[in-house]
Design a protein that fits this description.
Layout (H helix, E strand, L loop, with lengths): L6 H17 L10 H8 L1 H35 L1 H9 L4 H35 L10 H28 L2 H5 L3
Helix pairs in contact: 3-6, 5-6
Length: 174
């Protein structure tokens, strides 16, 4: 740690060491830098943050794959209904809302349950730190908008496929 010090700081440390030896010669002069001690304290928190980021990304990716599969299944099972609606004049937004309505309702329900729980647990976790940030509703609003946006983007691919499909092909077997 002494090699990281500037020349002036080395002189101060040498002077403090000499003064310490004069006052208390039986014990060795040891010192610690507070920035390095704080870095040690928060090293585990930084590791947890990094791991949380990677696992959250993986969970979001797997969730999007599942959501994509469910949207594909829903679009496939409802092709006749979508075909009839298109023939009767349903627009692009109508068909998109048919496919995405159930997913959006479930996401809003999950956000309604998860936001208060996460607010409680994050505040409980932050309370153990000497200096902690306050959690505002903005972060939950951003997370909710991002969640719904990711859902709509994921479902959008299947919606476009269902919208562009020829309704005659889906109704041919009836």
């Amino acid at each position: 740690a002494v090699t990281q010090l500037q020349h002036g700081h080395r002189d101060v440390l040498a002077g403090l060491g000499k003064l310490y030896k004069d006052i208390n010669p039986k014990f060795p002069f040891t010192y610690q830098f507070s920035d390095l001690e704080f870095a040690k304290l928060y090293k585990s928190e930084a590791l947890i943050g990094k791991l949380s980021f990677y696992f959250a990304f993986l969970a979001i990716f797997i969730s999007c794959l599942g959501l994509f599969g469910l949207a594909a299944y829903l679009a496939e099972t409802r092709t006749k209904e979508i075909g009839v609606r298109k023939i009767l004049g349903a627009g692009t937004l109508d068909i998109f809302s048919i496919i995405s309505r159930g997913f959006i309702e479930l996401i809003i329900l999950s956000l309604t349950i998860s936001i208060p729980l996460s607010y409680y647990w994050v505040n409980k976790w932050m309370a153990k730190f000497a200096f902690h940030a306050t959690i505002t509703s903005d972060i939950f609003l951003v997370c909710g908008v991002l969640t719904i946006s990711i859902c709509l983007i994921t479902i959008g691919a299947q919606s476009v496929k269902a919208i562009l499909a020829n309704p005659v092909h889906s109704l041919r077997n009836e």
